[in-house]
Amino acid sequence: MGYLARLRIKNIASEVARRKGWSLHGRTKLYTPVGITRLPCYRCGETALFQWQICSDGNVWRPICAECDIKLNALVLQFMNDDEWERKIKIYRESIGGE
Length: 99
Ligand SMILES: [Zn+2]
Description:
Blueprint: H1 3-20, H2 33-36, E1 50-53, E2 61-64, H3 66-79, H4 85-95
Antiparallel strand pairs: 1-2
The protein binds zinc ion (ZN).
Zinc ion binds at residues 41, 43-44, 46, 64-65, 67-68.
């Protein structure tokens, strides 16, 4: 992805965050378990609980809430054609205290 395309995506994300009243966070060093819960989810603005790092995003750690973390996990398992994705997500959801 070129510099301008990256800049455009960052500007769109920043604009969405500004409108919703939360700021976008991310850094190359892992947040502490306590520190992550003081930040809004990068995707939806709810209180973060986890952090994700994506190679194409410059390996920046992004705060993610529990629900978005579950959605990301489900997305990746489905992408990998995992036949047991629903069973695995159910177990994972229960393990992190989800409904
Ligand atoms: Zn979220």
